[in-house]
Write a structure and sequence with these properties.
By secondary structure, the chain is an alpha/beta fold. It is about 35% helix and about 25% strand. It has 4 helices and 6 strands; from the N terminus they run E-H-H-E-E-E-H-E-H-E. A 6-stranded mixed β-sheet has the order 1-2-3-4-5-6, sandwiched between helices. Strand 3 and strand 4 (about 65-75) form a beta hairpin.
């Protein structure tokens, strides 16, 4: 298994993976943020491959000079094998290369269950962003 940058040719496999792993609402939110992030900075979308098959994706972003883990997904039959943790570490290295002020984990209703993975990677509750402000890659809700 290795982690690498997203490539345009990965789109069909990534879309299928996200459809399989995420709920319908989470998938819709994630695809919109995914498309925005790709239009701004493809280096913050990482893919995990095993035997040349895409088995995971992590989407990060930088907002106000803070690095944020936005969404992580690992194919069901590849879960609990360290893939998520490897992607978190690879994204952390990207954030450190960009010299962000702080690295945070974006917490929403869709990824509460993923927090133990971030905790096992060394993040604490003080690193979890449940702030009311929305990241620039997330759709702003009209009032």
């Amino acid at each position: 298994m290795h982690v690498r940058s997203f490539q345009l040719a990965d789109t069909p496999s990534v879309t299928k993976l996200l459809q399989e792993v995420l709920t319908e609402t989470c998938y819709e939110d994630t695809m919109e943020a995914f498309a925005r992030q790709l239009s701004w900075d493809t280096e913050l979308v990482l893919i995990a491959e095993d035997d040349e098959q895409i088995v995971g994706i992590i989407i990060g972003t930088i907002d106000h000079n803070n690095g944020y883990y936005y969404r992580i997904a690992v194919a069901e039959r590849h879960q609990r094998k360290g893939i998520g943790r490897a992607m978190i570490e690879a994204m952390k290295q990207r954030f450190l290369q960009r010299k962000v002020n702080k690295i945070m984990v974006t917490v929403d209703v869709h990824n509460e269950i993923m927090l133990p993975i971030y905790e096992s990677a060394g993040y604490r509750s003080s690193d979890f962003s449940r702030a009311a402000h929305r990241l620039s890659i997330i759709k702003k809700v009209s009032s």
